[in-house]
Design goal:
By secondary structure, this protein is α+β, with helices and mostly antiparallel strands. The protein contains twelve helices and ten strands. It is globular, with a radius of gyration of 19 Å.
């Protein structure tokens, strides 16, 4: 049974008619890639059927799913020109949930998968930007620790606040490369102390565990409570979207944000959204920094805005 579909897969049905299989996010990514021709980072979707089979098998991948995932990862490597786990030219990926119906913030996501000490050095050599790399690395360890390993947020939060206080700043984006490198060490120690094991450095182990975490989050308390309130069926499952990472935290000339082609309040045809410079996506949705209205991007980054 096919459990994995690349974004540019030629579907017998229109991608938006396959939301039950690909999830809303996966269907939209396929639509943007294979139908609209928009510049979407390479990636693939593991289907909702795989999730339901995993849960039915008491947390075991269905036969053939992991092999299909590895083949799709190879195709993603070819499309991106990078190799997952390669110390010299590493591919980093995100692992995102996506059910048929939108359930914002109810299931799990892990960013920057593929980073370890060796690939971090490779990224620094490629980008000449050690601050960016250690920022992405500390984010991975924190997200992996809390989402995949089930650790409490508080120790990571306290360590980050302590680092900012020591540096005399209230913003994550103002921490230096050296301060972020120290934070990586601190976060690793937090994982070791509270999980009783080391943060996994094998990128394939990171990917496998993150995929399992997204599947399992379908039955997490937040997700179940949300579905009960929204009257969404409990047997739909979530897809897993594996996407090549692009980075909004490479400096003040990069950004991340959310934009719509219609007004959220009136439905009028107008760009609406907000963004943050030198940030990653979770910074926007977590509300830890005050976002800027998308109109400001016209002044700050006119080419990106146009």
């Amino acid at each position: 049974m096919p459990y994995v579909f690349s974004f540019d897969h030629t579907h017998r049905r229109a991608p938006m008619d396959m939301k039950d299989l690909l999830g809303g996010k996966g269907a939209n990514l396929a639509e943007m890639t294979s139908v609209l021709g928009l510049p979407v980072p390479p990636g693939f979707t593991i289907t909702t059927q795989a999730c339901n089979a995993y849960l039915a098998k008491k947390n075991k991948f269905p036969e053939g799913m992991w092999e299909q995932t590895l083949r799709a990862l190879k195709a993603t490597e070819k499309a991106s020109g990078k190799t997952f786990g390669d110390p010299k030219n590493p591919l980093l990926i995100s692992c995102r949930s996506g059910s048929k119906f939108s359930m914002p913030g109810m299931m799990d996501t892990v960013l920057n998968i593929g980073l370890n000490d060796e690939t971090a050095e490779g990224m620094i050599a490629l980008t000449k930007n050690d601050r960016f790399v250690y920022d992405a690395y500390r984010r991975l360890i924190q997200m992996f620790g809390t989402v995949v390993m089930g650790l409490e947020h508080r120790p990571f939060h306290d360590a980050l606040e302590s680092a900012k206080a020591k540096a005399g700043t209230t913003e994550d984006s103002k921490l230096s490369a050296a301060e972020l490198k120290d934070l990586v060490k601190t976060f690793k120690a937090i994982v070791k102390k509270h999980a009783g094991r080391d943060f996994p450095t094998d990128p394939m182990v990171q990917l496998r565990l993150a995929t399992e975490a997204v599947f399992s989050s379908w039955n997490g308390k937040r997700a179940v409570d949300y579905r009960n309130a929204a009257k969404i069926a409990h047997d739909l499952g979530t897809a897993v979207n594996i996407v090549t990472m692009v980075f909004g935290n490479m400096g003040d000339d990069s950004a991340t944000g959310v934009a719509m082609t219609r007004s959220g309040s009136s439905g009028d045809k107008a760009i609406e959204g907000d963004y943050l410079t030198n940030a990653q996506g979770e910074d926007v949705v977590a509300g830890i920094r005050l976002t800027k209205p998308i109109e400001e991007l016209a002044k700050e980054m006119p080419k990106a805005y146009s």
